[in-house]
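Supplementary Note 2. Why include the ligand at all?

Several targets in our set were suspected to adopt different conformations when bound, so apo predictions alone were not considered sufficient. For every target with a known small-molecule partner we therefore ran a joint prediction. The input for iron/sulfur cluster is given below.
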Amino acid sequence: MKVRVALGSLAVLGLERLEMLEAPSTLYVLQYSERGCNALCAFCPQSAASRADKSLVSRVPWPAVDLDTVASALRSRKRAFERICIQTVLKPEFENELLAIVETLRNSAPSTPISVATTPLPRRLLEELKETGVERLGVGLDVASPRVIERVHKPFTWEEYLEFVREAVEVFGRRRVHVHLIFGLGESESEILSTMQMLYDLGAEIALFAFTPIPGTPMAHHKPPPIERYRVIQVARYLISKGYRVSDFAEVGERGTIAIKCPQLKDLWRAFLTSGCPGCNRPFYNERPRLIYNYPSIRLLKRNINVVRRQAEKAGLMLPELGLC
Ligand code: SF4
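The joint prediction is reproduced in C-alpha cell form.
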C-alpha cells in the first residue's frame, strides 16, 4: 500500500536527504490517492478541484512511499518521533485503509502516540480507531465561520462538523480532539474568536493554521493573512485555551477586527508556537523561513522573539514581559 509522507518526516526516517532548519517531531502520513481527495476544498492542493501538484499539502512536499518501507524505517528509529499523525483523504474504502495504516504504524512504534486527522466519520469507526490505538483526533473543519463553509466547498455542513466534534469529544475525551482552523479564508476576526470559544466550550482544542495560497488551487490568488493580525489570533487562541473568556480580553472594533488587552501571563510566548496535539510542530507548513506564522520550536522562537514582539505591537498588542528563557 502506498502512503504520502511529509518530506521532513522522511528525512528523520533516513529515507530522504534534506537540510532542515527544524526537524518535525511528528511523523506526518497522508493516505494516498492518485487523483487526490474527492472533496472540493478550494484552498487545498489535494482536492479534486485543484490542478496543483498532488504531492503537496499546503507548502510541503509529501512524496508517495510504500507503507512497508515507512514501517520498517520506523521500527529501526522507534524514538525518532513524539507522535504519529495519519491524515485521511475522501476516496472509496478509505476507512478500512485507515485502520490498516494505524495498525501497521502502531506495531512499528508501539509506544508512540497516534493521532488521526480526518473529516466526519461514523461513531462506530471512531470507537474502532480508539480501540486500535489512536490517542487523539484532528478534525479538518478548517473554516471558522458558517458563512464561509459553502464558499470554500467543504464536503460537510457546519452542523455536521460540530456534531462530529461533539461525538469525537465523547469518544476520545475532553481536550483530545484538535480542530484544525485556518485564519484567512474570509472570516472576520470576531467570527474566528467566537468559533474558537465555542469549540473550547465543547471540550475540543484548536490547531491554528494561516491560510497559504498554493498555485493550481482555486484560491491561488487569495492573499495570506497579515502576520500582525495572525499574532492577535494566536494570542486569543492561547488565552481561550488557558480558560479566559473572549468577553474578558477582546473588544470588537471596526469591520470585525479585534483589540486584545493582554493579561500579565509570563508564558504568553507559547501562543506563537505551533498549536495542536502534543509533539506536533509542523515545521514550515504555512511559512517561509523569513516569515514564520507558527514557530516549530522554542529555539527558533527565542531567536526571533523581538521580531514577534514588533509584529504584535504593530497590531496594537502590548505583550507583557515574556518569560522566555
Ligand atoms: S494537530 Fe498535528 S498531530 Fe494533531 S491531528 Fe492536527 S496535524 Fe495531526
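The chain has eleven helices and twelve strands. The pocket of iron/sulfur cluster is lined by residues 26, 83, 85, 115, 117, 138, 178, 180, 207, 276-277, 280 (CB under 6 Å). Comparable summaries for the other entries are listed in the accompanying table.
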